[in-house]
User: Fold this.
Amino acid sequence: MTLAEFGAPTSPPEVPSELISELRTIVGDRGWTSDPADLEPQLRDWVGYARGATPIMVMPKNASEVAAVVKACVAAGVPIVPQGGNTGSVAGAIPQGEILVSLRRMNRIRDIDAADYTVTVDAGVVLAEVQAAANEVDRFFPLSIGSEGSCTIGGNVSTNAGGTAVLRYGNMRDLVLGLEVVLPDGRVWDGLRRLRKDNTGYALKHLFMGAEGTLGIVTGAVLRLFPKPVEVATAFVALRDLDASIELLSLLRVATGDALSSLEVMPRIGIEIAREFDPEVVDPLSERHDWYAIVEVSGTKADGQTESTLEVALGEAVERGILVDATIAASTMQAKSIWRIRKSLVLNLPKVGAEVKHDVAVPVSKQPEFIRRATAAVEETVPGTRAVAYGHFGDGNVHFNLCAPLGMDASTFTARAADLHRAVYDIAAEYGGSFAAEHGIGIVKRSEMKRYRSPVEIDLMRQFKALLDPDGLFNPGKVLP
Ligand code: FAD
Ligand code: 2HG
Ligand code: ZN
Assistant:
C-alpha cells in the first residue's frame, strides 16, 4: 500500500538545498547519508505497509546535534520524522519526504547504577544491549520483545512497547524514570531524574511516552532495573479450551506468589505455521490440542523453588481440569525451543498468505469471548478467513491476526481489510477495549481514532500537539486523525 492510501499527505514537503547543506555541516561527514542503498531499509517498514521517501537521513551523535538539526528544520519550515531501529508495526517511522532523523549513532550507555537500580542511556541504544549491560552488574531490564536485537530505547519509549513480561514488570511507561527530550522549538528538556518519587506538578515524561515522535525527539532515558532472576522455569501447556487460559492465569498468579512473568496463548494453527516455515520448531507435546500457552515463572533466590512451585501449580491445574497436558523445560535449551515456537509464529505468519493484523486489548477475562465473537464476525465478513489469535493473555492483549482463506489471492483479501478491521474493532470496543494495545497508531491506524476515541480525547491530544509543535513539523500525518 502507498502511504497516501493510509491518508498521508500526497505531496512531499519542499526541502531547500540550503537546509540540506546546513544539516550536513551540523552532523559532519559521518552523520548523514542520501545514498539510496543506505536509505532503502530505512524507508520500508517490516510489516510491508509502506515505502517512504526522504532527501536525507541525518544521524546526530548527541542531544546538542539533535537540537541544532531541529532548529534548522523548524527555521526552514521543513518537517522531521524520528527513527530508531525501524521495527515499529504501524509505519510510524517511515518518512514521506520529510528529513529522517535517525538516533542510531546515539548508542552510549551513559551510566549504570546497581545500587540505585537504574541505567541511563542514549535513545539509540539497542534494547538487547541494555539487557546485557544490566546483566553484567547483576541486574535485570525486563522489557522483552521479538525485535530486541534491533529496536532502540527511544523507539520503545515512543511506542510504549509491551512484550512478553508486561504481566510482571509493566510496559515501557512503567520502566522509565526520567527522559531527555529535544522539543520542537529546539530546546532540550533535561528530565533525566532517577527518582522513584517525584510529584512536582505534571508528569511531563508521560506525554512523550507513546507519542510516536509527534511531540519531540527522545534523546536519553533513565530506566528502572530489577533484581536479576537466577531461576527461570518455562512450561508449554495444552489448555482444556480457550476459557481455561483465564482460569490458568488466576491459578498461577496466586500459586507462584505472583512470580508469573509470562502467559502467552496460541492456537494449534500457530504451531503448525511455525513448524511449516521453521524446521527447528518442534511440538513439545505428543498429542494435538486446540489451544496452548507458554508460561514462565522466575525467582531471584537460588533455592531451587521456582521450578517445583511451577510443577505443583501445573499439577493442580491438571487436577482441576484446566490443563490437559503440560511439559516443563528441563534446560535453558528446551526453554529456548519453547519460545522459538512463539517467535517463529510472528515471523512466519506473513508467509502463509496475506495477513491482516489487529493488536487489540480487552479486559483480561473477556479475551475468550472476544476471540469467539471476532472469529465468527470475520468468518461472516470473508468466509474461510483463518484467524490466528495469539498473544499476551496475561495483559488482555490479543494479536488477532488474519490470514487469507486458502485459495484466495492476497490482493482480494487485503481489499477487504477495512471491513475486517471494522468487524474486529467494533467488538473490542463493546468490551471497552483498545484497537491499538501495544504497537501504537502510526499512520496505519490513524483513521480509526475518530471512531473509537471521543471528541474530548482527540481534542485534548490536538491541543497538546498544537502547544508543543504549533507548526506541525514533528512526524506529520501520524497518530492524530
Ligand atoms: P522505530 O520503529 O524506529 O519507531 C517507532 C516510532 O517511534 C515511530 O513513530 C518513530 O517516529 C518514533 N521514534 C523512534 N525513535 C524515537 C525517538 N528517539 N524519539 C521520538 N520518537 C521516536 N512491540 C511491542 O510493543 N511488543 C512486542 O512484543 C513486539 N514484538 C515485535 C516483534 C518483532 C519481530 C518486530 C519486528 C516488532 C515487534 N514490536 C513489538 C514492535 C516494535 O519492535 C516496537 O514498537 C519497538 O518499540 C520500536 O522500536 P524502534 O526503535 O524500532 O522504533
Ligand atoms: C509479538 O507479540 C509482537 O510478538 C508482534 O507484538 C505481533 O505482529 C504481531 O502480530
Ligand atoms: Zn505483542
User: Anything to note?
Assistant: The first strand starts at residue 32 and ends at 33. The chain has a mean pLDDT of 96.
